[in-house]
């Protein structure tokens, strides 16, 4: 079958953003790698993933790969999940500093993150 491999790569990268399981700002992150192997290899060749060939069930994404994945996810699917991911990330960080967060604390944090995102455009 003939198809646009670059579009498949973009959609796969966008979906990898959906399944990020570990993120370290400035160092990339890890995502579950249950996608087509040829596509994963092309993303590796483009410098967006580390070599996906391993026994690990996740693949390391480069910082460039994560940034592009987020942009593509927003382009194709909207930014609702991005807002939720940011809120959860900030809540986890705050929870380490304040272990007794309540539901209202979480809701307030989500509103705060949404307001920041909206202000930053």
Describe this structure as you would to a colleague.
61% of the residues lie in helices and 12% in strands. It is mainly α. The protein folds into two domains: 1-77, Orthogonal Bundle (Arc Repressor Mutant, subunit A); 79-121, no CATH class.
Largest sheet: 3 strands, antiparallel
In the predicted model, the low-confidence regions spanning at least 5 consecutive residues are none
Specify Rg, calculated over alpha carbons: 16 Å
Helices, by number, come to: 5
- Global morphology: globular
Extended strand count: 3
- How far apart the termini lie comes to 40 Å
Largest beta sheet: what is the strand line-up?
1-2-3
Assign the structural class, choosing from mainly alpha, mainly beta, alpha/beta, alpha+beta, or little secondary structure: mainly alpha
* H/E element sequence: HEEHEHHH
Tell me which CATH architecture of the largest domain applies here: Orthogonal Bundle
User: Could you name the CATH class of the largest domain?
Assistant: Mainly Alpha
What do the pLDDT scores average to?
78
Query: What share of residues are in beta strands?
Result: 5-15%
What share of residues is helical?
55-70%
Number of structural domains: 2
- CATH level 3 topology of the largest domain: Arc Repressor Mutant, subunit A
* Oligomeric status: single chain
List the SSEs and their pairings.
Layout lengths: L4 H14 L1 E5 L3 E5 L4 H9 L12 E4 L1 H15 L2 H18 L5 H18 L1
Antiparallel strand pairs: 1-2, 2-3
Helix pairs in contact: 1-2, 1-3, 4-5
